[in-house]
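Possible regression after last week's pipeline update?

I re-ran a chain I had predicted before the update to compare outputs. Posting the input and the new output here so someone can diff against the archived version. Not blocking, just want to make sure nothing changed silently.
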Amino acid sequence: MAGNRADKIIFQTAAKILVPEGIFERGKSRVWVDDNGWFLTVIDFSRGTWGKGSHLHVGLHFLWNDTDDLSIDLGGKEASHASYVGDDASFAEQMDEQAKLAMEQVRYYRTFSDTALAEKNILGENTSAPLCTWNKMMISLLNGSAPRGRSYLKEVVAITTDNYQPWAIDLHRKATREIALIMSNQEKCMQYILGLIRANRCALRDKSNMARLKENKKFG
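New output (post-update):
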């Protein structure tokens, strides 16, 4: 099957370029993961809407967000598409370049282990989307920027009030019933966020396709 051949080439390429850098495959899929403690870098060689090729997506999944899937919270689609039309050699060459591009992005995102640098980049996102505002609040608090975190908390509460979608209800509950109550204590805010990260790492490890996620001394 053409699809199976394309998947095999993707796996072989990732095993050659990504695995030596400590990146692991999520189960048996086109998604690969780089563990950075409080966030994961997700590398997705997506099939796209047609064909058996690969559209590259590289971005961050913040582990304070308790989602069932590895959503990309920052970053996304790269300007790279590898076409598969039955020519294994051509596709392997394209995938080699795509995997190298993915590795460049992974190395860049690894610098976000420095939360001050991460905060600068996350706050630089020019969007007022509710989840983005939530993420700006969380990185501000994780990095000890309480006044900025308080400002984003007000925004989160405002944009989720009277919004009855499940995600908005969840954010509103956390913002008003959990974070608002400890906002005056920076240490409690940091411990709250670390608790979310540890719980979500544990939940991910319980999934068979994420069993390769190792325990982290600080983040669980």
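Follow-up from reviewer: compared with the archived run. The mean pLDDT is 93. Marking as no regression found.
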